[in-house]
Amino acid sequence: MKKQEKIVFAFRKWNLRLDQNFSRKNQKKIFWIMMVPSYDNLGDQAITEHTIKFLKKNFPEYGIREVSELTKDWQYRYLKNKMKSNDIIILPGGGNFGDIWPVTEEIRQKIVTIFMGKKIISFPQSYSFSDKKSDILRDANSIYTRAVDFFSFRDSISYKKFEEHFLNKSILTPDIVMDSFSQYIDSNIDKKFDILTILRDDQERAANSNRIKSIIKIASQRWNISNTDTKPLNTSFVNRRNRSFLLDEKSKQIKQAKLVITDRLHGLILARAQGIPVILFNNADGKIVNLYNTWLKDDEGILIGDQFDTSQIYDWAKRNMGKTIAPINMEANFTDLIRNIEKVFHD
Question: For the chain, what is the radius of gyration of the CA atoms?
Fold first, then answer.
């Protein structure tokens, strides 16, 4: 086969693969979920999973397609040509709206630039731009103001900061995984350990991590403690074929604990979704306690460890360990998100 024929063959093969990945399957309206992660943070994977569940439950007439974070620019442009006028781009929720994770923010800006003129909405995020005069904030402001229909933020501090710096419409909505609180079922299972710790080991870990280690060390003299993180047990690559299984596996691991200690936002959410008491420590950028103060202050199954001395923490753990404490039902707090998505349909 000549070189030119090989190039043509390769191009046709890529087009066929793209047609399969971006197939409409006779669906007139589609949600295109962008930046779907393949990395092993199960908090972000849970966001994808619950975004899909939320859209299926509330907008069953729409098809749903996942677009990987690894998608190339030319593939985005190919997709743009395939889109219909009533399709909607979904920018994922999470904690990466800002300069803490600049590569992710740059990808989001690139996607919005490429799809400018299409319907674009952002699911619940935390605001984390640290420098009011940074280039990345200036670029974000310029790009998003012209192109994004609305943003949603998962805590009141993020919402207020966005309102100060951006002109886009914005709404306040819980983290999308908190939609699972409305499906809470009290299930009695055998507990394998007294305490499960779910702690970060990256740049967002709790500022007082040494104190947490000391508390855990002393607690281990009295209670059986196991350690984990929001990562899969046996793989570092996640896709739509294994995502649900890996999330179920992690949920089962968490469910085996009588109490959880965490500085991870989705460690908190996944534990409370199963009625497990949580001792919560704030992470470096404050997004966990910001979310707690916005939605969960009345949740009797959560103690903010930063606000109490060690003896008070132990007393609370002793009183609540092994209890099943139902989470607060968040369903009504998603009404504004549903209403604004419906409005984008008709604009």
Answer: 22
